[in-house]
Amino acid sequence: MRNKGLCFQITATYVGTVIGAGFASGQEIIQFFTHLGFPGFWGIGLATILFAFFGFLILFLAEQIQAYSYGELIQNICGKRIGIAMDFSITLFLLGGLCVMLAGGGAIFAEHLGLPYTIGVISTSLIVMGTVIFGTEGVMLANAVIVPIMVGVTLLVNLLVAGEKGFHWHISPMVDPPNSNSWLLSTFLYVAYNMTLAVGVLASLGRGVKEQRPVYWGGIMGGLVLGGLILLNNLSLTAYYPQAISYQVPMLYIASHYGSILQFSYVLVLWLEMITTAIGNVYGFARKIELVSRWNYKVIVIVSVLLAIPFSYWGFAHLVSFLYPLFGYLSLAFLLFLFFAFLRSFFFPFLTKRKD
Q1: Distance (Å, rounded) from C-alpha 341 to C-alpha 349?
Q2: How far apart, in Å, are the Cα atoms of 7 and each of 57, 161, 195, 279?
């Protein structure tokens, strides 16, 4: 029972870290999959396999070296020189991602709840700080509670769409110029930057755990759940194509067709998903800074959130458009190094250094 509980917590933490504002809103899925038409479904299938594979691989490699933070894992994977540069870049991106999620919280309160932007930013900040201060246990517990709620509301919306539209979804035409391989690049970019974010949390989850099998299965199951949610949302988005793509939050537009209660529930889910991603960002950032500075972990958590608050006023859309494209191709390089680490660990295990 304990192993099953640990597997569930790892699965929920993985899902909660990857699912953020872009995923919940539907914008990420439209940009990476829906606009491709039918080939987008091939991309979703491949993304599911990659999420499961790399989720397992990060947890496996981190356990092999008993990593305390993602920095140790990255340097082991990429080598010292490249590892330091990538480690620094990911650290900055985690802090930038926190700014994005706080800005998203403010935008939800202002645009959908009719409350001041500042209340949204402060409320999100307090919940994130209050959770992450409790360390790994707090992060996993928060995700274990929040993720089932998110999955439940997402399933309900998609079931209602299926009930209304039947199973004859409209498959959107190809919007991009004809390119038979565009879905491949789109898929790898999507998985790459999400996995680079997830490594901040996943890298330290297996440390000190006696039974590793539930940890590994948590990585695999997390990837499968992510793929399933992407598939369901993409089916709903194609059902409401092309109207849905003209909205900033297309999934909220779809939910609004089924009553104000479900619409409000989806607003709540959107906010919760921003919170879980922010939790992952702060946790990964704080563990890294604690390791290199020896400052108090709780102080780092509080200071990092306070530092991010002013930048959140730059605006959600501006932050997303600036930070995410900048990080995309760097993330592809990390994914490549991660795959080479897989070859090294499984086919040349004597090259993998394990810390006692």
Answers
A1: 10
A2: 15, 31, 19, 19
Cα–chain center distance at 290 = 23
| CATH class assigned to 2-172+187-342 | mainly alpha
| Neighbour count for residue 335 (Cβ, 10 Å) | 17
Angle 24-277-132 from CA coordinates, rounded to 5°:
145
The pLDDT value recorded for residue 196 is 80
Residue 311 identity: F
pTM over 0.90: no
Q: What angle do CA 228, 233, 239 make, to 5 degrees?
A: 130
Cis peptide preceding 242, ω within 30 of 0: yes
Q: Which residue ranges make up each domain of the chain?
A: 2-172+187-342
- Measured distance CA(41)–CA(29) in Å, rounded: 11
- Which tens digit of pLDDT belongs to each residue from 114-156? 899 899 999 999 999 999 998 878 888 888 888 888 888 888 8
